[in-house]
Amino acid sequence: MDQQPHAVLVASPGLGHLIPVLKLGNRLSSVLNVHVTVLAITSGSSSLAETETIHAAAARGNCEVIELPSVDIDHLLEPDATVVTRIAAKMRVMKSAVWDAVKSMKRKPTVLIVDLFGTGLLSIGDVGVMKKYVYIPSHAWFLALMVYLPVLDKVVHGEYVEIKEPMKIPSCKPVGK
């Protein structure tokens, strides 16, 4: 029986999400000897760069890359919806496609890693014996802010932009005017 861990990494649409997930997958594969499958959710914008990145990663052979076809979500959103709103909606709609891809894998995954927009997919990891992680490929300052936001929500009254003094985030330089 093969004891090698199998990690499924889910990349949200766009190169800014795909490239860090592919880099993480390559590191897990080459350094920790983890079998890695990357589920690449495409943006649907027919981006040549996105397609080339997916095919180049698949050709390198460190990770198995499965491209999940994009689903049209325009009917679910207002025409002026922000990019963040579009990505979040796309990830919600793609949950069944991700689940189907995981179910069809011959080698059952032991780890599920999603990026910030994929947190709604974590329930897929409840089936079986998958450990679940959220990968935030950013600088430490952004991560510190995200972790500290629940505290800020309790102590800041009103909008953050209305704060007169610099905002204090533990382990970071104060942010502000």
Report on the structure:
The protein is α/β, with parallel strands linked by helices. It folds into two domains: 6-135, Glycogen Phosphorylase B (Rossmann fold, 3-Layer(aba) Sandwich), CATH 3.40.50.2000; 139-177, no CATH class. It has helices at 15-32, 48-60, 83-93, 95-103, 140-155, and strands at residues 6-11, 35-41, 64-68, 111-115, 131-135. It has a five-stranded parallel beta sheet, sandwiched between helices. Helix 2 links the parallel strand 2 (35-41) and strand 3. Helix 1 (15-32) runs parallel beside helix 2. The chain starts with 5 loop residues before the first strand and ends in a 22-residue tail after the last helix.
Keywords for this entry:
2 domains, alpha/beta, 177 residues, single chain
Listing every helix as H and every strand as E from the N terminus to the C terminus, the arrangement reads EHEHEHHEEH
The fold-level CATH name of the largest domain is: Rossmann fold
Q: Give the CATH architecture of the largest domain.
A: 3-Layer(aba) Sandwich
Biggest sheet architecture: 5 strands, parallel
Strand content: 15-25%
Broad structural category:
alpha/beta
Number of domains: 2
Uncertain runs? none
What's the pLDDT, averaged over the residues? 86
> Tally of extended strands?
5
CATH-defined superfamily of the largest domain = Glycogen Phosphorylase B
Keywords: Glycosyltransferase, Transferase
GO molecular function, one term: glycosyltransferase activity
